[in-house]
Design a protein that fits this description.
48% helix; nucleotide-binding; Rossmann fold; 3-stranded parallel sheet; EC 6.1.1.17; Glu/Gln-tRNA-synth; mainly alpha; 3 domains; aa_tRNA-synth_I_cd-bd_sf; glutamate-tRNA ligase activity; 12 strands
């Protein structure tokens, strides 16, 4: 790596939500910049005024913030830089690297129809390319790049390797429209140069664009950035990712309750690898990430892998951080905020809830016993465990618990003693006890629940269930 500071960028178009593929592109740029002590910039490519919306821009920023991908400086609006883009087009015009084209749309279409009829290339060859300026009419014109027509353009891509494109496949692309507005191809190059971008990491659907954009770099005498075109994400069936495969937007994954750290981990592994490592931290990812680890084949979305990683991240998260993320999840999904007693109870319960929960909703369901308020309404299966016989046994158990030392061994001994007195097992007595304490047939250990909610709450719930 040279002494030049690494600068990467993420440049989404604000025409919708932050797509999972875009999120991965942003992550790769963020990891590469952070890992090299560089800068990660954000540019909103809002030149398509008909489709760009403030709501989409807000959704993209919200998605990036949820993912934890912080950018350096302010987000840049490409639309606001239109005068600078036009300035460069006119500089190229003055240097002879571009020309005014007065061809109308009808003339261009007539050219292409003739080319198709003669079975030759339909790339438009403007008759104005080498025209004497003295012959220029007083009419609307576009500014076209004067692209080389012979030889080849070679893209040295950090992911795809050497890619060679014949210059006879490249057209004299329009850089400035007849109304004076810049095209996307010009704007991208000017912005990347002015922002000091050293590495362009983006989807491989832009690979052909690189060949055309290089002509602008060369014409302006600007250094060409390092290209890294990454394969797209496919669905589990190997086909292009679409709605039929499930969630496409980052906000959907947030709403499903995956921790942001798990999403970063999972997205990093979609198309990039570091040996056999699957679970890793941000610090490890930043230290390990390199363009050489990106594969050339499309990555496949795998929800089971995501869930597995999500569970590992939930289990590994410090309790205070996990509680903070749970509260943020409730707020993001418009669910009621925790009351102070619920928050305190959840904080006590988290150590025994973390393992086994793969998403925040699963963890919250496991925490039902500490979040619910009396009297608990048991679900259908739990209610079946509270028959008359079971209620009688719980009534007999209550005084034993009232006098027991509130420690796990003592509680377990008290329950076991009552179970044996009725010719049953501790495991069988756990079902009605669980129903009384949690209102659920599935919950943490009954003894863990007793320790978390305390003696008074335990006895009160047993009384509510008829166990006194």
């Amino acid at each position: 790596m040279s002494e030049t500071q690494v600068v990467t960028r993420f440049a989404p178009s604000p025409t919708g939500f932050l797509h999972i593929g875009g999120a991965r592109t942003a992550l790769f740029n963020w990891l590469f910049a952070r890992g090299h002590g560089g800068r990660f910039l954000l540019r909103i490519e809002d030149t398509d005024r008909a489709r760009s919306t403030p709501e989409a821009t807000a959704a993209i920023l919200t998605g990036l913030r949820w993912l934890g991908l912080d950018w350096d400086g302010e987000a840049i609006s490409q639309f606001e830089r239109a005068p600078r883009h036009a300035e460069v087009a006119h500089q190229m015009l003055a240097s002879g690297n571009a020309y005014k084209c007065f061809a109308t749309q009808d003339e261009i279409e007539a050219f292409r129809e003739a080319a198709r009829a003669e079975n030759r290339s339909t790339l438009f060859q403007s008759p104005w390319r080498d025209a004497d300026p003295a012959t220029h009419p007083d009419a609307p014109f576009v500014i076209r790049l004067k692209a080389p027509r012979e030889g080849v353009t070679v893209i040295e891509d950090a992911v795809q390797g050497r890619v060679t494109i014949g210059n006879d496949q490249l057209d004299d692309m329009v850089m400035l429209r007849s109304d004076g507005t810049p095209t996307y191809m010009l704007a991208v190059v000017v912005d990347d140069h002015d922002m000091g971008v050293t590495h362009v990491i983006r989807g491989d659907d832009h690979l052909n664009n690189a060949a055309r954009q290089m002509q602008i770099y060369h014409a302006m005498g600007w250094p060409v950035p390092v290209w890294a075109h990454i394969p797209l994400i496919h669905g589990p069936d190997g086909k292009k990712l679409s709605k039929r495969h499930g969630a496409l937007g980052v906000e959907e994954y947030c709403a499903m309750g995956y921790p942001a750290a798990a999403m970063r981990n999972y997205l990093a592994r979609l198309g990039w690898s570091h040996g056999d490592d699957e679970f890793f931290t941000d610090a490890q990812a930043q230290g390990w990430f390199g363009l050489e680890g990106i594969g050339r084949s499309p990555a496949r979305l795998d929800f089971r892998k995501l869930e597995n990683l999500s569970g590992q991240h939930i289990a590994a998260m410090p309790d205070a951080a996990l509680l903070h993320e749970l509260e943020a999840f409730l707020a993001a999904t418009a669910q009621p905020a925790l009351t102070e007693p619920q928050r305190d109870g959840l904080a006590r319960a988290l150590p025994l809830l973390k393992s086994g929960a793969k998403t925040f909703p699963q963890l919250i369901e496991k925490a039902h016993f500490v979040l619910a308020t009396r009297p608990l309404v048991p679900d259908e299966k739990a209610a079946q465990a509270l028959d008359d016989v079971s209620r009688g046994i719980l009534a007999e158990l209550t005084p034993h618990l009232r006098s027991a030392s509130w420690e796990r061994d003592a509680l377990e001994a008290a329950v076991k003693q009552v179970a044996e007195a009725h010719g049953t097992s501790l495991g069988k007595l756990a079902a009605p006890l669980r129903a009384a304490l949690a209102g659920r047939s599935v919950s943490p250990s009954v003894f863990d629940m007793m320790l978390v909610i305390g003696r008074e709450e335990t006895l009160a719930r047993l009384a509510d269930a008829g166990g006194c």
